[in-house]
Amino acid sequence: MKIMVVGGGGREHAIIKGLKKSPKVTEIYALPGNGGIAQDATCVNIGAKDIDAICKFAVDNKIDYAVVAPDDPLVLGAVDALEKVGIKSFGPSKNAAIIEGSKVFSKNLMKKYNIPTADYNVFSSAEEALTFVETAPVPIVVKADGLALGKGVIIAATREEAIDAVKSIMEDKVFGDSGNNIVIEEFLTGPEVSVLCFTDGKTVVPMVSSMDHKRAHDNDTGLNTGGMGTVAPNPYYNKDIEKVCMETIFLPTVEAMNKEGRTFKGCLYFGLMLTDKGPKVIEYNCRFGDPETQVVLPLLESDLLEVMQATTNGTLSDIEVKFADKSACCVIMASKGYPEAYKSGCPLNMPKADENISYFVAGAKLDGDKLLSAGGRVLGVTAVSDNLKTAIDDAYKAVKKVDFENGFYRSDIGAKALKAL
Ligand code: AMP
Ligand code: GLY
């Protein structure tokens, strides 16, 4: 089968490497892919948001199945557009992708269907939001309604920070129209867990749980990033908690979307906080998380293409989705300075992947046959091993073999998880 994957980061590289293991797959195209993905797929210079060009490419090249990985094209309706031209695709339709595209929508959904989440208020005027913040307890969390490259959430430790957050989102429009409305919500505490689920709108199959590390530097210091590393499984997430999540969060969410006439198919990502009052939803994503995917998919033993097709066809209950009883650790190597200003175009060399180590390229371009960095997050180095300790050790051993002088990485990915064990 000819497969097309829309997107061009580490997540897409992990998806492509996963798909390549399927005996049914003969060719993979990545739109746009990147210089590192080019080792595993044919990269085509079409942007992930250029839906007309994506559809034309798929039809012209007789693509048998498409995977739309990033949030933007999903929220813009890429899956609907592809289906209209006869291409079956993995991912939610536009009217279901709103679960990530609008935080106001997702918060109201949770309230209506009693799905546990932080208490909140919605504001469409800066004036009203500022009045509210004057007497609200701090810390408090201010969230832009729409997509904001993962930066639309501000944890305000003080009232002044909350006021600044409201002003910058609603008045200065730092996230553009994504900040026309905001959610202000209660600050929750507890361990965070990411759970990605396959769903066809009826059956929900949770993947192995994971833990992201969002801050740029060790000991959770520095700015928030797209994610500096992950481990799976997440030791805080045990069988009892999984059962509670299934009954109070996962199934109710899928059923709520059905009741709203917005059946969700694809990968539904639950960002959870395990509070002392039980698990609560911090955020939904309408897609695979990154870098979570870089630890979750290497542990998948079933045929990824078959599982994806089952979500599209509504046959997920007919298949078994198996994960290895092992652990994985992914360390992200980023350009020095990230998530603020950084230099691109710096040489990147890594050894050949071996059975237990994968190099997922997030941001690099080819210059002749040389790889040069092209982005903030550049490389994900994933190790799979029998237990978390050895997975962490192996990932860091592999990181040290990478030659990327302009790079930096956190040295404590998985440390908190190890402590929790
Ligand atoms: P998001 O961009 O939605 O993933 O949020 C970024 C991070 O902000 C999350 O991973 C949490 O660590 C934190 N966060 C979001 N909402 C809350 C909340 N209500 N209470 C505490 N932390 C939060
Ligand atoms: N790692 C969080 C996300 O993909 O949004």
Secondary-structure map with pairings?
Elements lengths: L1 E6 L2 H11 L6 E6 L9 E2 L7 H10 L4 E4 L2 H6 L1 H7 L4 E2 L3 H8 L1 H10 L7 E4 L2 H10 L4 E5 L8 E4 L2 H13 L10 E5 L5 E8 L4 E3 L4 E2 L2 E3 L3 E4 L4 E4 L6 H21 L6 E10 L2 E8 L7 H4 L7 H10 L13 E9 L21 E5 L2 E4 L2 E4 L3 E9 L2 H13 L6 E2 L6 H6 L1
Helix pairs in contact: 7-8
Adenosine monophosphate binds next to strand 8, strand 9 and strand 17.
Structure, explained:
With 421 residues, this protein is an alpha+beta fold. The protein has helices spanning 10-20, 51-60, 71-76, 78-84, 94-101, 103-112, 126-135, 159-171, 239-259, 293-296, 304-313, 388-400, 415-420; strands at residues 2-7, 27-32, 42-43, 65-68, 89-90, 120-123, 140-144, 153-156, 182-186, 192-199, 204-206, 211-212, 215-217, 221-224, 229-232, 266-275, 278-285, 327-335, 357-361, 364-367, 370-373, 377-385, 407-408. The strands form six sheets. Strands 12, 15, 18, 19, 22 and 23 form a six-stranded antiparallel β-sheet that branches. The protein has a five-stranded parallel β-sheet with strand order 3-2-1-4-5, with helices on both faces. The protein is globular. The mean pLDDT is 97. The structure holds adenosine monophosphate (AMP) and glycine (GLY). Residues 118, 141, 150, 153, 155, 185-188, 192, 214, 271, 282-283 line the site of adenosine monophosphate.
